[in-house]
Specification:
This protein has one domain. The longest helix is centred in the first third of the chain and has 14 residues. A hairpin with a 6-residue loop joins strand 17 and strand 18. The chain is globular, with a radius of gyration of 24 Å. The protein has three helices and 21 strands. The protein is mainly beta and 340 residues long. Helices cover 8% and strands 41% of the residues. The strands form four sheets. It has a nine-stranded antiparallel sheet with strand order 14-13-21-20-19-18-17-16-15. The chain has an eight-stranded antiparallel β-barrel with strand order 1-2-3-8-9-10-11-12. The protein has a two-stranded antiparallel ribbon with strand order 4-7. Keywords: Signal.
Length: 340
């Protein structure tokens, strides 16, 4: 009896021991909320795709994604954002005006609506490498190098490898995805924004790194304050006689190589912005004031640090040709940031 009682007491002692909680997973760089741009870009392919959106990491080792998707197999037409810049930052006059033209700002199809897809998965950290395994029908694993900014307010993701994507960028902090900055803060940002980009056009891949972006040169609008504009006076590489502007572009007697730029907010409740730009001479060649051809539409997600400050964007260019040839599409994944 004493032996049985002793065994029972031992079993009860084990049963009554407090349950230890599972160890919390290490957040990537100590950050929970990331904006991410990634793409499958291969020179010989016309099945390339782009994804832009957010990843959210939980301490229990799970991750969720909310993303916009653009795919060459299902090209989407450009759509209006609803923004028309006011006369404080644009002009209804053409010619050699110093302001961008008053045009309805466009973005990539679908970007003004809800995300195209959501998925969940699990993640783990090993040193500075983040591994994500998505729970979808096909195998999809991503690995990213994680690097913290010198001030500790941001974590950066550099794509190491992926089952499906070939290029990608990401930035994270502990600011909520609904935290964003207005265009006045974008223009006033004192840091130096530089662009790293991989683009696809005409069956060729081009990588361009460390390109300066002059956000402070943009003009603030008076009443449409969620928009900035910039008329780049000239371009040495774009908008040329040999690049689609045989009568008016650079290298002609008219010599018009200026570029119309527009930056506008898409949403009040999340990080979405967009950039739209096009060569002035392309509109002139078609007898148009606002260009309706293959303009550049570049959806953006703001990078916000732990203090809620603006630090740039990750973005994707989803400029599908208005014609039937996919070879004329212009696609890219890129980042514009002071922490690269």
């Amino acid at each position: 009896m004493r032996t049985a009682a002793a065994i029972l007491s031992f079993v009860l002692a084990i049963t009554l021991l407090p349950v230890q909680p599972a160890a919390a997973a290490a957040l990537p760089g100590g950050k929970s909320t990331f904006v991410v741009s990634q793409g499958h870009l291969k020179a010989a392919s016309q099945q390339n795709w782009l994804r832009l959106g957010s990843y959210r990491f939980a301490a229990n080792g799970t991750v969720s994604a909310s993303l916009y998707l653009w795919w060459q197999r299902n090209p989407e037409a450009r759509q209006r954002t609803g923004m028309v810049p006011d006369k404080g930052c644009s002009t209804k006059a053409g010619g050699s005006a110093s302001r961008a033209r008053t045009c309805r700002v466009l973005t990539a199809g679908g970007f003004t609506g809800a995300p195209d897809e959501s998925r969940t998965g699990t993640y783990s950290m090993a040193g500075n490498v983040l591994t994500i395994r998505w729970k979808i029908a096909q195998t999809w694993t991503e690995q990213w190098y994680v690097r913290r900014s010198p001030d500790g307010k941001l974590a950066r993701l550099d794509l190491k490898r992926s089952t499906l994507a070939t290029h990608g960028y990401g930035y994270g902090s502990n600011a909520a995805i609904g935290t964003r900055r207005e265009m006045s803060s974008v223009k006033a940002f004192r840091g130096s924004l530089r662009q790293d980009l991989t683009s696809w056009a005409g069956g060729k891949l081009v990588t361009s790194n460390n390109q300066p972006f002059s956000h402070s040169a943009f003009r603030a609008c008076t009443t449409t304050t969620s928009c900035l504009t910039y008329l780049q006076p000239s371009s040495r590489g774009a908008c040329q006689k040999s690049g689609g502007c045989p009568r008016y572009g650079g290298g002609t007697k008219a010599g018009v190589s200026s570029i119309q730029y527009y930056l506008t907010k898409i949403s009040n409740s999340d990080r979405r912005d967009t950039m739209w730009h096009w060569c002035t001479c392309l509109a002139m060649e078609r007898g148009e004031f606002c260009y309706t051809g293959n303009s550049h539409v570049k959806p953006l997600m703001q990078i916000i640090d732990d203090s809620g400050a603006f630090r740039g964007w990750v973005g994707a260019e989803a400029s599908f040709s208005t014609g039937s040839s996919r070879a004329a599409d212009m696609l890219a994944v890129f980042r514009l940031s002071d922490f690269r």
